[in-house]
């Protein structure tokens, strides 16, 4: 599900409340101030030795068609979240990647040619210049006409299901591995990731309420995540309650001061670049409604690296653990 990069911030009252006030949750960090999620650093760790692809393979693409892959020496794996390239790397085939999307930011991939532009659109010309032997993508990236152009040029295009949930990570891994002719590595990696997710810490007692805000100050975009946005799954996995879901929101919706005040989040979760785009915590507190929330009064703002929170890939277990630590931290 792609981020809805549209909408406007609806204005409301902006008075400042009393400091040090928490909402219904038991917030041990109510006076701790801002924090940062210690997201995974470095490159994804391959599940084992580089596997030898068994080709050709014919797989069912998520759009319903059968695709035959005969060559995986030059792989382009792209989507909105950067997760597909991480999966290829964690399968032990990272040396076969020939390009990247803007969300693929792990160190080994940064030098790869960028094939996505504004809005995560692909350029058929830019992709074909890389001479990929297979393209793996999902519906979060496009436009569809470009994917059709790639198919017409003879490049196999395999689409993976685009659900951004924790249970979907394993099927995504196995689908990518099948398309690359390394199903055994896919099963091993999926099992390893599942074990990590099961080991993530849960909290007890009254859960804190966390609101995920998608911020792009330079473009005037201010959104709040709700059910199905992806951020809700991460917040819940970290042992907290998602504010947007509690408000009855689905996906990403324009942020309103009234809605945010009514949600009364204990913690505001934002991406690091988004926080920077509004002038840091001080700038965030100037947005209508933010200062009236328990999170605003206590400056309980947690930022996370842009390439980590919504990746839903091999390192999501580590991200959930780090998110739980940041949300539930004590001073």
From TrEMBL:
InterPro entries, alphabetized: ABC_Transporter_SBP, ABC_transptr_periplasmic_BD
Keywords, comma-separated and alphabetical: Signal
Signal peptide: 1-19
Positions of region (Disordered): 32-53
Listed SUPFAM superfamilies: Helical backbone' metal receptor (SSF53807)
PROSITE patterns from the UniProt entry: FE_B12_PBP (PS50983)
The Fe/B12 periplasmic-binding domain, residue ranges: 76-331
PANTHER family reported for this sequence: HEMIN-BINDING PERIPLASMIC PROTEIN HMUT, VITAMIN B12-BINDING PROTEIN
Family from the record: Belongs to the bacterial solute-binding protein 8 family.
Protein name: ABC transporter substrate-binding protein
């Amino acid at each position: 599900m792609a981020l809805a990069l549209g909408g406007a911030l609806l204005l409301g009252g902006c008075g400042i409340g009393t400091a040090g006030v928490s909402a219904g949750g038991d917030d041990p960090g109510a006076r701790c101030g801002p924090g940062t999620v210690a997201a995974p650093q470095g490159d994804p760790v391959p599940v084992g030795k580089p596997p030898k692809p068994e080709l050709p393979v014919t797989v069912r693409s998520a759009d319903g068609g059968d695709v035959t892959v005969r060559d995986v020496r030059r792989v382009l794996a792209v989507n909105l979240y950067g997760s597909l390239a991480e999966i290829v790397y964690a399968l032990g085939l990272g040396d076969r990647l020939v390009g990247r999307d803007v969300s693929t930011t792990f160190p080994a991939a940064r030098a790869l040619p960028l094939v996505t532009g504004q809005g995560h659109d692909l350029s058929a010309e830019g992709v074909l210049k890389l001479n990929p032997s297979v393209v793996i993508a999902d519906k979060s990236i496009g436009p569809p006409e470009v994917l059709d152009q790639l198919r017409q040029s003879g490049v196999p295009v395999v689409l993976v299901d685009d659900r951004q949930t924790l249970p979907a990570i394993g099927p995504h891994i196995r689908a990518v591995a099948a398309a690359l002719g390394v199903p055994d590595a896919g099963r091993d990696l999926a099992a390893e990731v599942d074990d990590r997710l099961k080991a993530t810490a849960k909290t007890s007692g009254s859960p804190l309420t966390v609101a995920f805000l998608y911020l792009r100050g330079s473009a005037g975009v201010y959104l709040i995540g709700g059910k199905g946005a992806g951020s809700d799954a991460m917040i819940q996995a970290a042992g907290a309650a998602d504010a947007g879901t509690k408000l009855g929101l689905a996906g990403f919706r324009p942020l309103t001061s009234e809605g945010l005040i009514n949600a009364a989040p204990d913690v505001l979760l934002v991406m690091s670049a988004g926080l920077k785009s509004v002038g840091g915590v001080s700038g965030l507190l100037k947005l209508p409604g933010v200062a009236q929330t328990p999170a605003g009064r206590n400056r309980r703002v947690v930022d996370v690296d842009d390439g980590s929170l919504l990746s839903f890939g091999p390192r999501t277990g580590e991200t959930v653990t780090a998110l739980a630590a940041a949300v539930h931290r004590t001073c």
